[in-house]
Write a structure and sequence with these properties.
Mean pLDDT of chain A: 91
Oligomer: heterodimer
Number of strands of chain A: 11
Largest sheet of chain B: 6 strands, mixed
Distance between the termini of chain B: 41 Å
Shape of chain B: globular
Helix content of chain A: under 10%
Largest sheet of chain A: 7 strands, mixed
Radius of gyration of chain A: 13 Å
Largest interface: A-B, 30 and 27 residues
Radius of gyration of chain B: 14 Å
Structural class of chain A: mainly beta
């Protein structure tokens, strides 16, 4: 079945450490998104990419970085510059038109050790 | 600019009662509207969407929503709540305007639905 796979499900970060969250999709979708979810704040956009080798900052990009070397993959790195990284991270993708819904992965929960 | 307001961060109903989750949006262009449901530690699952055409939209699990342009609303309803409906619900808006980010969604803050037996 087509879908979005996020890994790992749970991740722990030490102080000063960078960690990378994986997002892979086999839906042949062009656009991919990373959201951060905190209780009571809904989903906030971190980065998005509409085509390979191109990506744009969202509303809360500071302390994060991404790459889009392949259409299927959009990994997110949470850098040591992100001082409050504890959150639930969701990856999503969409096909070629905005009237189609975004498909979501099952998320990665990141915590600080 | 686009935005979504969900009135009520928590809603509680008894099993069998009407569910009403409120969503108001702001958009300068014709909107596309979505309702998603999220169960604990999972991603978002699409309940229903409005793009064009009929303003009353039916979704999965017996949910429906009505697009009211004059009220800029897209409230989610279900006639009879079930225990399995307990989850968090998100309303989202996007649009097909020239130069906009493809498919970028603007989310409300979510409404946690509790269903009492």
């Amino acid at each position: 079945d087509g879908g979005i796979t996020q890994s790992p499900k749970y991740l722990f970060r030490k102080e000063g450490q960078n960690v990378t969250l994986s997002c892979e999709q086999n839906l042949n979708h062009d656009a991919m998104y990373w959201y951060r979810q905190d209780p009571g704040q809904g989903l906030r956009l971190i980065y998005y990419s509409q085509i390979v080798n191109d990506f744009q900052k969202g509303d809360i990009a500071e302390g994060y970085s991404v790459s889009r070397e392949k259409k299927e993959s959009f990994p997110l790195t949470v850098t040591s510059a992100q001082k409050n990284p504890t959150a639930f991270y969701l990856c999503a993708s969409i096909g070629q038109t905005s009237n189609q819904p975004q498909h979501f992965g099952d998320g990665t929960r990141l915590s600080i050790l | 600019a686009q935005s979504v307001t969900q009135l009520g961060s928590h809603v509680s109903v008894s099993e069998g009662a009407l569910v009403l989750l409120r969503c108001n949006y702001s958009s300068s262009v014709p909107p596309y509207l979505f309702w998603y449901v999220q169960y604990p530690n999972q991603g978002l699952q699409l309940l229903l969407k409005y793009t064009t055409g009929a303003t009353l939209v039916k979704g999965i699990n017996g949910f429906e929503a009505e697009f009211k342009k004059s009220e800029t609303s897209f409230h989610l309803t279900k006639p009879s709540a079930h225990m399995s409906d307990a989850a968090e619900y998100f309303c989202a808006v996007t649009s097909e305007s020239g130069g906009s980010t493809l498919g970028r969604l603007y989310f409300g803050r979510g409404t946690q639905l509790t269903v009492w037996p």
